[in-house]
Amino acid sequence: xxxxxxxxxxxxxxxxxxxxxxxxxxxxxxxxxxxxxxxxxxxxxxxxxxxxxxxxxxxxxxxxxxxxxxxxxxxxxxxxxxxxxxxxxxxxxxxxxxxxxxxxxxxxxxxxxxxxxxxxxxxxxxxxxxxxxxxxxxxxxxxxxxxxxxxxxxxxxxxxxxxxxxxxxxxxxxxxxxxxxxxxxxxxxxxxxxxxxxxxxxxxxxxxxxxxxxxxxxxxxxxxxxxxxxxxxxxxxxxxxxxxxxxxxxxxxxxxxxxxxxxxxxxxxxxxxxxxxxxxxxxxxxxxxxxxxxxxxxxxxxxxxxxxxxxxxxxxxxxxxxxxxxxxxxxxxxxxxxxxxxxxxxxxxxxxxxxxxxxxxxxxxxxxxxxxxxxxxxxxxxxxxxxxxxxxxxxxxxxxxxxxxxxxxxxxxxxxxxxxxxxxxxxxxxxxxxxxxxxxxxxxxxxxxxxxxxxxxxxxxxxxx
Length: 465
Prior knowledge:
By secondary structure, this protein is an alpha+beta fold. Among the domains are: about 110-145, no CATH class; about 160-195, no CATH class; about 210-300, 3-Layer(aba) Sandwich (GIY-YIG endonuclease), CATH 3.40.1440; about 305-390, no CATH class; about 410-465, no CATH class. Helix content is about 45%, strand content about 10%. The chain has helices at about 10-20, 25-30, 30-40, 45, 60-70, 75-80, 85-90, 95-100, 110-115, 125-130, 130-140, 160-165, 170-175, 180-190, 230-240, 245-250, 270-285, 310-315, 320-325, 330-340, 360-370, 375-380, 385-390, 395-400, 430-435, 440-445, and strands at about 210-215, 220-230, 260-265, 290, 410-415, 420-425, 455-460. The strands form 2 sheets. The chain has a 4-stranded mixed β-sheet with strand order 3-1-2-4, with helices on one face. Strands 6-5-7 form a 3-stranded antiparallel β-sheet. β5 and β6 form a beta hairpin. The protein is extended. The relative contact order is 0.04.
């Protein structure tokens, strides 16, 4: 035992000692120092390659990972054989030390993406040749400054576009059959010359094709009201899982009913006004509405109302492209297609710096907030900044109090006997917060869709005798 104090635990020495034992456990019982040295340096895998339980309880130190990585030629082989060692080396930055010839990860900044884009002529080639740099350029808004063109913008001549447009009678047909050519015509301003193309909302010979429809759930007296120009396609949209009509039907356990077409063959303006009238009628009759937004919005039917002047005027209340694209994605896409985004130099294309909104002073926030008449408009344009200002108590100083909750209906919660009162709440939101669940569950209990929710019976206070 005294000779062990003067030993040099080299690889060859440990290998000779390990050859006398059948497995790692036997080596640990036979010679503890040799076992500890072999485990820390990763030599146990060389001494006992058939043993599978050596990975348990090991310390992934730099020396251990270096010795273990030396058994493989590439980092890919290391990852296949031991992902734990690979992840440790990747996090600590040791992979480039262990494998000097390994390709370093690129930092996709503006210079790198621009240098990569110069190798290609079109955006399609850029996407196929370097997809990661292409996606980064799209996300940051750098793609337009690289001078690349997409097929359809420079390939077609003005004469070819106008000749093709004459084969169709509406914008929709032209866009459906020749999308790239239609986008090229929009960028060059050729659509203004195509007076024979009918706009959305009209059919042959200018006959209006808009209609107002409703989905009625008579058992729960719930309805959804909308307007459309394509009845079949719009009905298919309502049958998709993400649609509010489908979700409500699934929630109450019924199928989506057939739409009820109230008005047909009307103009877009008439449809917008009649939709509001129909919604008010349903409200007066005591129906619940699935619609999340107020009626009267013509959505994609009114795409032509966004002229160049209106789009540019809307961008003046924003500082970054990211925020404007998030709140007005359709408008921003139209501006990009028509090239109007180049006329908005005040919109910064760089990403918002980290903690940019948090570090703003009260005076700077006040200057931005005073551009809006109400707090709701300020919240819509600068959501993150609005939340920060509200937490610090600045919003109540700058804006008048809102009327939120003015029309809320009080709710009473009963025990299962239906007599004992469990609690009273001013609104549906307050009751939902008290029980920590979803608003729809209490709403269904109040409307008779379900008998109970969260082990209680809920009723509107104005419906209690």
